[in-house]
Amino acid sequence: MIVPEAVPPNQINRMVELLWTFEEKKAEDPTSWYRKPLKEIQMKELVGSGMVEIYNHQFLWDNRQYPKVYHAFADIWGIDELWVSIDRANLNFPVGKTDQFKGFIHWDIDTSDPNRANNVQGVLSLSDTTKDTGGFQCIPELFQNFTKWVKTQPKDRNPFQPDVSGLKIEQVETKAGDLLIWNSMLAHGIRPNRSDRPRLAQYISMTPAQEGNEALRTWRIKSWKERIAPEGYAFPGDPRNWEQRNAKTAKLSPLGEKLLGLRSWRS
Hints:
The chain is an alpha+beta fold. It has helices at residues 9-23, 58-64, 67-77, 140-144, 146-150, 214-226, 242-246, 254-260; strands spanning 2-3, 51-52, 82-84, 89-92, 120-125, 135-138, 170-171, 179-183, 188-191, 199-203, 206-208. It has a six-stranded antiparallel beta sheet with strand order 1-8-5-10-4-2. It is globular. The chain has a single domain (2-260), classed as B-lactam Antibiotic, Isopenicillin N Synthase, Chain (Jelly Rolls), CATH 2.60.120.330. The two termini are 31 Å apart.
C-alpha cells in the first residue's frame, strides 16, 4: 500500500540535503557521485544499490515519529503498541559506465521457516520515482501464489532469493513524501536507475513492541543515544563515525520515546 504525503515537504527536503552532506557528494555535480564505498557491504545483492549508512540523525527520527507515519503502521497491525525500526537511507545513482548494479529481488525473512512471523516493511520516498529512476520493485504474483509456487521449487532453493524465471517484476512509482508499506513475504528489491538523476529514500518499518525483551530494548536505546549502526552482514556502518562527530542525540516526542522503547506504552 502507498500512503500519499505521509511526511511534509520541509522534512523531505532537509532529509535530502542531509544525505548529500553525509555522503560528501554534490547533487549538481555528477562527477562526485561514484566514489568507491568507504566500507564494502557483505550482503552481495546490496552492493552498488546505494545504501547510506546513517541511522540516528534527528531528521531520520523526525520522519519515524511523524504521526501520519505511525498511524499508517498502527492501522495495519491493528494495535497502538509499536516499535520503529532503526534503519538507514538510500541514494541510488544512475547506472554509470563502470557500474554493474543490475537490481535484485529478495526476501528479508527466511521463507522456508514454517514458524516465520508476520511482518511488514516500509520505505519513505524522498524523491519522485518513475520506472526509469530506480526504486522499489516486487513480484505480486509470487506473494499471491507462494504456496503453489514453492511446491515447484527444488528442496535446496534459496529461501531469501527466489528464482524469478517466468515471473513478472512490477515497478512501483511514488512521489516524494509517499510511504510504501508491504508484507515481508512479498519478494522485493531495488531496480537499477537508468535515468539522469538519483533516487533517494528512507527505510521505515514498525512492528509490535517487545517491551519484555530487555536486551533488545537496551540496545535500541544505546543505538539512538550514541548514534551507532545496527550490527550484521547487511550493515557495514560508517567508518568515519560521521554521526558521532557531527550530530547530537535526537530529540524525541512522547510518541517517539514509545516507538524507541525509552518509554513504555503502558505508562
